[in-house]
Each structure stands twice: as C-alpha cells, then as structure tokens.
Amino acid sequence: MTSHLKEKNKNSPEELLGKLSEVYADFDYPEDMEPFIHYMPSSDGYNPLLYSKEENITRLVSLFEEFLQKEKAVVQFEQF
Known about the structure:
mainly alpha
C-alpha cells in the first residue's frame, strides 16, 4: 500500500507525507512508521527548526524510502 502511495504521489512529496500520515492512523499508529510522519517529533535528535521546509520534506521522504527498503527485504526473506 505505501509503495503505491509513493508512485501515485511521486511529483508531490508533501502530499505523499500527508497520505502516509493517514495510513499511519488507519493502521493504529505503528511505531516503525513514526520516523517519517511529519507531525511526530524526531527521535534521533534532529531539529527541524534548523532546516528549511524543503529540507525537512526531503528528510522525511528519505526516511520513508528507508522504511520501504526494510519492508521489502523482510517480505523477500519471508518468501524463502
């Protein structure tokens, strides 16, 4: 589902992050999604106030990409 959102919103990272926050709520707020949910506080010491809006969006999308790669690896591992 999240990879579908990525493709559908590839030209609008801000909209992608909004849709991901909806999925986050729909799935009862899974902890592994928190790092890229725009309204959640950073757990790694990152201070978004020190960066531009664009930099923050880029960071969140990058964290989402990392999440997708980890999930893809888990799915591939479970298929064996």
